Amino acid sequence: MSVYVGVDVHRKRSQIAVIGQDGEVQVNRNVPNGVKTVLGVIGDLPIGAPVAFEAAYGWGWLVELLEDYGYDPHLVHPLQCKAIASARLKNDKVDAATIGQLLRADLLPEAWIAPLEVRQQRALLRHRFQLVRLRTLLRNRIHAVLADHGHDRAGGICTSPGRSWLADLPLPDASRHVVDDLLQVIDALQPIIDTLDRQLAAQSRGDPRSIALCALPGVGTLTALMIVAEVGDISRFPSARKLAAWAGLTPTVRNSDRTVRHGHISKQGSPWLRWIMCEAAQTAKRHPMFAPGYQEMAHRRGKKIATIAIARKLLTRAYHVLREVHEQQAPPHRTTATKAAAGTAPHPGRARISA
Fold it and tell me: Where is this region: Disordered (predicted)?
């Protein structure tokens, strides 16, 4: 008998509902997060049983657990699961059962589960960019302290001349203490960022996708790695328009009868991909490939909207580059006649499994 499992994942505990093939709830239990506790509920279920859960905070451990023990994980798209969000009665027990019922009825709005190596690559790149943001925050704090005393410098304060100028600057004791502490933290962050940059540069040299993306205007090594990591498997997007919509770079549309209203971009999907494309667009908009279109749109709609439009066009070009590399790396298609000639014809009773 087939069973379906719905899990409402939380930070410390999870609600697990087991649904039978007839739709009856067999088990609905709240357990602490952990291998033993989760397996205590679903450990006796058949191997390959489907398990669905929302993309909530800290769901990676559950995917690894399910894959290690032979279950079939399904990630629920939280924004599209209207049956849970609009329910009149909403609690963990009801949510877990609803997820299981949607899985049983094949009505589950699923999200893509990135492989472990892709998730690790994303984590490394996001960590690097967050450290750079922290360093920028500390530098801005130093500028704020200096501005409070009427001091400013056109050049950077973290260069060798800037450090000398800062050391000779007359500041009150408390302000001097704040500036010295901030500089120490900046100096401590720099070796970590440099090590990450070397590690990521080495990874980029061995990835043909990153090498191909670096030919695009405004795309450097780190930008290319971020695009590759955030997009993942490019074959899951049938068109560049779908990728742009997933990145949240397409405008929202409200259509009723003959009235069509276009709003701001949706800002759904990966915020990191949307951010890195907008950063790359700041350079790409000055390239001859995009400059005429940017100037024309900036005149009509403003610089911000024009920059987002360039980010969307740049992502479209990145899509075609990734598709081309993917098709070059894909193994050549072999027909049944070719397999038979090679002595590897498929057995007529053997099911064909697609990766």
Answer: 326-355
Longest dimension (CA), the chain: 86
Report residue 223: phi and psi, to 5°. Answer: -65, -45
Which residues of the chain, if any, have pLDDT below 50?
Answer: 335-355
Contacts of 140 (CB under 8 A, 6+ apart): none
Helix (H, G, I), strand (E, B) or coil at 48: coil
Residue 313 vs residues 207, 265, 277, 281, 308: alpha-carbon distances, Å: 23, 14, 10, 9, 9
Q: Distance between CA atoms of 75 and 113, rounded to whole angstroms?
A: 7
Element (H, E) at 265: strand 259-265
d(C-alpha 79, C-alpha 98), whole Å? 15
Taking the C-alpha atoms of residue 290 and residue 296, their distance in angstroms, rounded to an integer, is 10
CA atoms within 13 A on the CB side of 258: 0
Domain limits, the chain: 3-111, 116-203, 221-329
Fill in the DSSP letter of residue 342. Answer: T
What distances in angstroms separate CA 303 from CA 122, 247, 298, 309, 340, one per listed residue? Answer: 30, 20, 5, 10, 60
Q: Match domain 3-111 to its CATH number in 3.30.420.10, 3.40.50.2300, 1.10.260.40, 3.90.1300.10.
A: 3.30.420.10
Supply 167's token pair. 């050391």
Tokens representing residue 228 in the block: 């590759």
16: part of which helix (H) or strand (E)?
A: strand 13-20
Show the CA angle centred on residue 61, arms to residues 59 and 63, nearest 5°.
Answer: 75
225 in Cβ contact with 203 (< 8 Å): yes
Please tell me the distance from the alpha carbon of residue 219 to that of residue 317, in angstroms, as a whole number.
Answer: 11
pLDDT at 345: 44
Contact 111, 232 (CB under 8 A): no
pTM summary value: 0.83
Residue 200: both structure tokens together: 């990521």
